[in-house]
Structure formats: C-alpha cells, structure tokens
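LAB NOTEBOOK - FOLDING QUEUE
OPERATOR: T.R.
BATCH SIZE: 2
PURPOSE: Compare the predicted structure-token outputs for two unrelated chains run back to back under identical settings.
PRIORITY: normal
REVIEWER: second-year student, initials M.K.

ITEM 1
FIELD SEQUENCE / FIELD STRUCTURE:
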Amino acid sequence: MKMECSENTNIQRTYTAEQIAQILGISVRKAYDFCATTKEFKVIRIGKRCVRVHKESFEKWLESQCDAQ
C-alpha cells in the first residue's frame, strides 16, 4: 500500500519551547534560553519569538544524556 504525503499531516515533527520545558522539567524561560544557545539539537526559528525544536534530533540528544548517567 502506497502512503500519500498528505496522510502524514497530523504527525508532530517539532516541539515548542513549552513542550521542551515540560519534558525537561524546567521553566519556559529556561527552555527558550536553552534553545537560543544550544548546538546539541536542531532549533528552527520562525520570526523573533517563535521557536520550534526538531523532535527527532531533540529525542536523540535526550537519550544520549540519559545514557551518559
């Protein structure tokens, strides 16, 4: 069965800073600061205030942090 690209529109491919804050258990402000300075995972800026984090790269980074402990 061939899957059409339009069928994938409901798949979440990014996280917001608010979601990152919740996952990491930090404040939203710290999540924004972290996204502004990190080179550990892909951050997409849309305008001045809108930040999206590439889900797959963030999850790989988070997993590596868990493995390091």
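ITEM 2
FIELD SEQUENCE / FIELD STRUCTURE:
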Amino acid sequence: MSYYTGQEGYGRFTPADRKLFYRYSRGSFEETKAWLRKAIRRKLIPVTKVPRYSEIINELGPKLNAFIKSTR
C-alpha cells in the first residue's frame, strides 16, 4: 500500500526522519483540533458546519494514528 505524505514530507529520506515528521504531523493535527474548538466557542464557524467538521476530525485522528503505528 502506498501512502501520500504531502509536499512537506518530501525530502525526508531516512525512515527515522519520516517517522519524526509523522509525529510532528500528529502534533499539528492536535493543534488544529484545539483551534477548531476555539473557533466553535467563539462562534466563528456556523453551527450547521460543526457536525461535519467533528466527523472529519473523528475520522482523521484514528487514521493518522494507525498510519504512524504502521511505520514502526
């Protein structure tokens, strides 16, 4: 199975370097979740959009963790 790591993942040639990048990606994902919660609390995002964003977050988190685990 092939995985796309995005442009930021290019140039990481060693397995250790890629694994570190994936862990940084998880940190960025957690930061995104925190900003999304703040935006919802501050009513910057329409209430009608919140369920969809929550669905995406709930789907992506486990997928990212599974991908990181698969690279060990």
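REVIEWER COMMENT (ITEM 2): The CA atoms of residues 32 and 52 lie 15 Å apart.
FOLLOW-UP: none requested
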